[in-house]
Every structure is written in structure tokens, then in C-alpha cells.
Specification:
about 20% strand, Arc Repressor Mutant, subunit A, elongated, 10 helices, Trna Endonuclease, Chain: A, domain 1, about 40% helix, 7-stranded mixed sheet, alpha+beta, about 325 residues, single chain
């Protein structure tokens, strides 16, 4: 690590900058200071006038703190960095989320942040005569900046028509685009009259959940990782339809089918398991893994389904 006194000084200055930018008290701390220093690539030996604006992910920020400031954070603190430091910096217009690719999924390992052009212009004047005036100008426009960045990202969000008059917004990405196709294309064709119960979302985790219907059919509320991507209820036939959106992760294979059967054993209705794919190429890649007694649907051939060894086109297997 570089000179300890310099490191302490840079950390103290970063905390002071965060405070003067007006961040909430909960974010005026060392953790958020390391985020700011990492965003600007300001090592202990650099001045604020030498600030840079690289694209930086959460893990690289943590690596930066360890390498240059001797602060070691456990890997399981990544979510704390994201939710309780970077989220607020984005809201304040100080940082921009995925400026290189706004439609990048939230859970992508390539997710990155960058200091906003307006913020770095102010920070480069820290300790100089122009600091006070530059800061005042930024703060007067901060909410507008944050709204502008949020709007740019919102344009890339995936909107799903759940039912008449109700749209649900999911985080951007191929996975959620396929979820939209499942609900808007597959369900009306093959599950006419089905009611949506649940949508998982790679960003918000719970994209949609009808808790009243879930209670009526005895649907368990489990942690996001255990739930399928889409759950539909066909009341007239008492079918509980469990759908996996397959873009990068696997379909309903034998292991997953057993997991889902166990998870929803106490729920009402016969269980139907569907693996949905965006195209034939993805289907061909995963076809060897698909479990028997399940269904598959391919979004770019929406009028057809493939049933694995079933004696009927679509239905529960006993």
C-alpha cells in the first residue's frame, strides 16, 4: 500500500466530498468513499485533479480498495456495495449504471458503473477556488441529471402486459424478453384463460406476484432462486403451470422437475412443467437435458409446442 498518511487523507477527502454532494448520512462512510475513489481511479498518490472515468464493476471496486488502500472486503459484501453505496450515488446523479450498455441485465457479471461527466467536472475542482460554485451548480441540477439517466435506462426496460390495464416493467435483457413472450404469446395460445400468479425478474427478483391468488391455491412463497420464472394458474382445469425461461441457464431437466414437484407438492392442481426457449438454436443446445413428461415451447416458432413422450398435446402426467 502507498503512504498510509496519504491513503487516510484521500479517504477523508472522499467522505467529505460525499457529504458535500448531499448524500444521505448512511452513505457518508468509508465503503462509499472507496466506491468513489475506485470510480475515479484516485490512488493515494494521485490528486483529485487527476481523476479519471473508467467503467468499474462492484468487484473491481472492492479489489481497488484492497490493492491501493489495504482494505479487504469479503466477497459476500458485494450486494452491500451495490444496494447501499452505488444505488444512492446513481440516484444522486454522481454515477451512471451501465452507460456502455443500458439494456445489460442487472445480474450480468459485466454490470458496471461510471462517474457522470457532470460529477467528475465538479470533483476535479475539489480544493480549488471554483469548488463551491461548481458544487452549487451540480446540486441545483442533480435531480434532473438522475432523472435523465434513469429515463435513458427505463427506455430499455421490458414491459409485460399482465392483463388488461396492467403493465409490469422488468429489467432489460434476453431472459426477460423471453418471459414477456411466454406471457403474451405462449399463454394465450396454449393456456387460454390462464391467470398469471408470479413472474421472477433478474433485476428486482419479484417482477409480479398475485399474493391473493397464491394463497387461494396454496402456493408456497420461497426464495427467488427456487421459484420457476413464470407461474400460471388455469382454474377451469386446475392446472398449475410452471415455466422456466431458458436463455443461458438450463431447462426443466430431471433434477429440476423433482425440485419443482417437491416445492409445489402442497399446492392445488395438477402440475405442468414447461421449458421455454427464444429460438431453435437454443432449444437444440438444451434438448438433450429436457426431462420426460415435460413440455417445450420455442418463441420464434410460437404456434407449436414439443411434448416429451406425452400421450396428449398438453396436460398433466400421472
Amino acid at each position: 500500500m502507498a503512504n498510509n498518511d496519504r491513503a487516510k487523507k484521500r479517504i477523508a477527502e472522499a467522505i467529505d466530498i460525499l457529504g458535500q454532494f448531499g448524500l444521505p448520512r448512511a452513505q457518508i462512510n468509508e465503503r462509499t468513499a472507496y466506491c468513489l475513489l475506485g470510480l475515479l481511479n484516485v490512488t493515494p498518490g494521485k490528486t483529485w485533479q487527476e481523476s479519471e472515468s473508467p467503467l468499474v464493476g462492484i468487484t473491481p471496486m472492492m479489489d481497488f480498495a484492497r490493492e491501493h488502500y489495504g482494505k479487504n472486503y469479503a466477497p459476500n459484501t458485494r450486494e452491500t456495495f451495490r444496494r447501499f453505496s452505488m444505488h444512492q450515488m446513481v440516484q444522486a446523479g454522481i454515477a451512471i449504471y451501465n452507460p456502455d450498455k443500458p439494456d445489460r441485465p442487472t445480474n450480468s457479471p459485466k454490470a458496471a458503473y461510471q462517474i457522470s461527466p457532470a460529477a467528475i467536472a465538479v470533483i476535479k475542482s475539489y480544493g480549488c477556488r471554483k469548488w463551491t460554485g461548481n458544487l452549487a451548480t451540480f446540486k441545483s441540477r442533480a435531480s434532473t441529471l438522475a432523472a435523465q439517466y434513469a429515463k435513458e435506462r427505463q427506455m430499455d426496460m421490458v414491459q409485460v402486459k399482465v392483463r388488461k390495464g396492467l403493465l409490469v416493467t422488468l429489467s432489460p435483457g434476453k431472459h426477460n424478453e423471453l418471459i414477456r413472450a411466454i406471457i403474451e404469446e405462449m399463454a394465450p395460445r396454449f393456456l387460454h384463460g390462464a391467470t398469471l400468479v408470479y413472474i421472477g425478474d433478474t433485476g428486482e427478483k419479484w417482477g409480479f406476484f398475485d399474493d391473493q391468488l397464491a394463497e387461494q391455491i396454496g402456493l408456497p412463497v420461497e426464495e427467488h432462486g427456487k421459484m420457476p420464472d413464470v407461474i400460471l394458474w388455469l382454474a377451469d382445469k386446475e392446472w398449475l403451470v410452471l415455466v422456466e425461461s431458458v436463455t443461458s441457464h438450463g431447462p426443466v431437466d430431471a433434477k429440476r422437475r423433482i425440485e419443482l414437484a417437491d416445492l409445489f407438492a402442497s399446492a392445488k392442481g395438477e402440475k405442468i412443467y414447461i421449458s421455454a426457449f427464444p429460438d431453435k438454436r437454443t432449444f437444440a443446445r438444451f434438448a438433450p437435458d429436457v426431462a420426460w413428461e415435460t413440455e417445450t415451447w420455442v418463441a420464434d416458432n410460437p404456434t407449436h409446442m414439443v411434448h416429451f413422450n406425452g400421450d396428449k398435446f398438453l396436460g398433466p402426467y400421472k
